[in-house]
Amino acid sequence: MFIAILELDPSARAQLAIALQRAGHHVTDMPYAAALTRHLAAHPCDIVVVGSREAHGEVEATIARLRARRRLGIVALIDAMDHEARIAALESGADSCVTRPYDTREITACVESLARRIRDNHDSRIAEPEPQDSAKPSDAWLLVSRKWLLLSPNGEQVQLTATECSLLSLLLAHAGKPVSRRDIVTALGYDYRHYDERRLEALVSRLRRKLGRHPDGTPIRVAHGFGYAFTASGLVS
């Protein structure tokens, strides 16, 4: 397996790399998420061990971005007493968690388990043709709803308000199809009969400006006389 290690502590990073190399894997280690992004863009990778001691939101965003953009096995290293961080990592897409202080044998065992699963999945897909119209994982936007965070296909983060997050959740659930103004207003918790639609127009306008910074422009389109649509591929975590 080709394995990448994301770990801020240099001694822990070296220890992990040696253990996994002894198990017969190709290992690359790095201290920061930006370096990992560059590595994944240029090199093959099967499994990522995420061990950086970053703020919870950053760790979750990193895991969610890995899960959305690549078919990767993900092992998260979590402090033993931080139960919430463990749950958040699993909810964001980690396949397994190992608690600190950890035994490198346990991490090696987790990697070997994931490796077997990846090989089995690969073997089962060999004879399956790829759908011609399927979107590449790297083309997808990712909404991390529990953090009100949207990740663009190139990894940029867009911080959302609660209302913007609710609107995007609805549009992504119907990606590629327009959603009526009535359905949007109702999903936001208002009575459409007494709702000033100018509020919705202002909300969408602000959100489109935020997303419009992406090179391909905003994926939110106006369906004139009806509602709005999210026209790119997207996932909700």
Extract low-pLDDT stretches: 125-137
Q: Could you spell the SSE succession in H and E letters?
A: EHEHEHEHEHEEEHEHHEEE
Main beta sheet: 5 strands, parallel
- For the record, the CATH architecture of the largest domain stands as 3-Layer(aba) Sandwich
CATH class of the largest domain: Alpha Beta
Span of the ends, CA to CA? 26 Å
CATH 4th-level superfamily of the largest domain:
Response regulator
CATH fold category name of the largest domain: Rossmann fold
Explain how this protein is built.
The protein is an alpha/beta fold and 237 residues long. The protein has two domains: 124 residues, Rossmann fold, CATH 3.40.50; 100 residues, Orthogonal Bundle (Arc Repressor Mutant, subunit A), CATH 1.10.10.10. Helix content is 43%, strand content 21%. The strands form three sheets. A five-stranded parallel beta sheet has the order 2-1-3-4-5, with helices on both faces. Strands 8-7-6-12 form a four-stranded mixed beta sheet, sandwiched between helices. The chain has a three-stranded antiparallel beta sheet with strand order 9-11-10. Strand 10 and strand 11 form a beta hairpin. It starts with a strand and ends with a strand.
